[in-house]
């Protein structure tokens, strides 16, 4: 009989990773986030970083937490590390995430979290004064083609003058496997830091999705035609916090 291999089952692999990490006490090495890029590149990162306590958040994250005000929407809250830090300061924050497992873990940690996405938010969450796109979640802009709609959808939930606080990472680097992938993107008319990837956990995989690494100049260009205005940027090596305001 001929031997056949199986493809992973499509499901909430990211949520499963957070659940495993939380069930194991979120101790270092408790669970690994496995990601697969569409050129076969596999990477593993300690999932405990999604559980960073408030006083150990990076300088850029702490700055974002300090700037957030009014009704705050933590877009792609994950296990809710930023939302928890805000709640501890008495701020009004709601976590939003399309991963049922992530929402479950965030709620178990005491975060007010709702299932939904930028494109499909739950009813009645606006108007929002501050959007958080932290943990590199400027990546949710996806790429040149999708970004205008993502920025418009966020603006449609916002109060006039709302803030958007997002962290991102400049994809420039010297690793040859990454630079080859970026060259392949350019050749296909994609932004160099556009990554088509999926998360794996056991026999589960998420659907393939685009996540965007972009430098501040590329971000400024994407923001240009949108309702958002560039306010300021805080840089720390290749990482940065962009502060945008609804025009
Ligand atoms: C890199 S993780 C960051 C999690 C969290 N912000 C943190 O820093 O700990 C990305 C998160 O965004 C969520 N996400 C993915 N697509 C989304 C969308 N369209 N709208 C809102 N959240 C999304 C994922 O489920 C995941 O929890």
UniProtKB/TrEMBL annotation:
Domain of life the protein comes from: Bacteria
Keywords assigned: Methyltransferase, Transferase
Keyword Glycosyltransferase part of the UniProt annotation: no
GO BP annotation list: methylation
Listed CDD domains: AdoMet_MTases (cd02440)
Organism for this UniProt entry: Nocardiopsis metallicus
GO molecular function: methyltransferase activity
Keyword Transport applies: no
Domain Methyltransferase: 72-161
Descriptive protein name: SAM-dependent methyltransferase
Family annotation (SUPFAM superfamilies): S-adenosyl-L-methionine-dependent methyltransferases
Gene3D superfamilies: Vaccinia Virus protein VP39
InterPro entries the record matches: Methyltransf_25, SAM-dependent_MTases_sf
Pfam families documented for this protein: Methyltransf_25
């Amino acid at each position: 009989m001929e031997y056949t291999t199986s493809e992973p089952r499509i499901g909430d692999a990211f949520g499963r990773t957070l659940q495993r990490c939380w069930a194991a006490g979120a101790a270092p090495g408790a669970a690994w986030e496995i990601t697969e890029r569409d050129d076969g590149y596999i990477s593993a990162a300690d999932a405990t970083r999604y559980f960073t306590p408030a006083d150990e958040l990076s300088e850029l994250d702490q700055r974002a937490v300090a700037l957030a005000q009014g009704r705050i929407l933590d877009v792609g809250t994950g296990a809710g590390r930023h939302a928890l830090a805000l709640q501890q300061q008495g701020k009004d924050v709601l976590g939003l995430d399309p991963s049922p497992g992530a929402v479950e873990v965030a709620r178990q940690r005491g975060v007010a979290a709702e299932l939904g996405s930028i494109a499909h938010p739950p009813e009645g969450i606006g108007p929002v004064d501050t959007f958080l796109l932290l943990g590199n979640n400027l990546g949710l802009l996806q790429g040149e083609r999708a970004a205008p709609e993502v920025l418009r959808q966020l603006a449609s939930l916002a109060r006039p003058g709302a803030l958007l606080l997002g962290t991102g990472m400049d994809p420039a680097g010297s690793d040859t496997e990454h630079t080859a992938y970026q060259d392949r993107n350019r050749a296909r008319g994609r932004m160099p830091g556009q990554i088509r990837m999926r998360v794996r956990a056991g026999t589960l995989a998420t659907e393939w999705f685009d996540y965007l690494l972009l430098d501040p100049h590329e971000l400024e260009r994407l923001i240009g035609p949108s309702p958002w205005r560039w306010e300021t940027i805080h840089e720390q090596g290749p990482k940065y916090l962009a502060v945008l305001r609804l025009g």
